[in-house]
């Protein structure tokens, strides 16, 4: 009898851990991991721009970093989740592998995750009390809610120009500026400044995020047309939009290369930042030879590649001064 009880307990425990593991994997794909990773790296990169001396890399710095990472992790979960909730029917065509259309996550649970994530994000940022952090949460929440929610006067994703404006605003302006100011003014208690390094990041990310805004719709033309979402790719054609995106990415790498060469820092930093961006630009151009713009699988693979190149670029941008 005791042996039976132990085996039953062990089986229940194993079932519990398997359920938790399955849920976490489902949640991972529900939150669009590639964009969440990029936003995390953007936080680290912009925060490092506020570092003036080696002693700034202290427990205070890492606490300040966590103060941004946790509320924005929850906000990312909300933004990506609410988009999937209202794109449920479209994703059955464009992205049937996602947790909602594939049935791995119920609609009720998805709505609960989305709502609770938004509430916790606002609650945590209010408790922390950093004005740049609060503004970052608010300025991201409002446009991306309007982008996804399908009610009168909203559902702004139907308008490609608005979509591009939102993406550029968040990735090129709101994220780097508010993350930098949080570290500069709230954590380090220093005065407001806008250093050259921050300006370089803004210019780079303006070009790169515009390319991402255009590229994200290339694999989704079929579903977008069916549900009346007239993206640039659906209007102009995937091939033309693809090469516009490539041009924007290469221009961004070019800006970072010049900034690295002209950076008033030591020689090894100039070499790392300039040659690093040349390598990223070369990888991008090389991979374009293998992209079939008529294949959703091929263009989706390219879309993931440009996010991965952005991950590396965030690391290099943190060194530019």
UniProtKB/TrEMBL annotation:
Belongs to the UbiA prenyltransferase family. It comes from Psophocarpus tetragonolobus. Gene3D superfamilies: UbiA prenyltransferase (1.10.357.140). It is a multi-pass membrane protein. The chain crosses the membrane at residues 60-79, 105-125, 132-149, 161-181, 193-215, 241-262, 267-286, 301-320. It is found in: Plastid, Chloroplast membrane. The keyword Nucleotidyltransferase does not apply. This is Prenyltransferase. The keyword Transmembrane applies. Keywords: Membrane, Transferase, Transmembrane, Transmembrane helix.
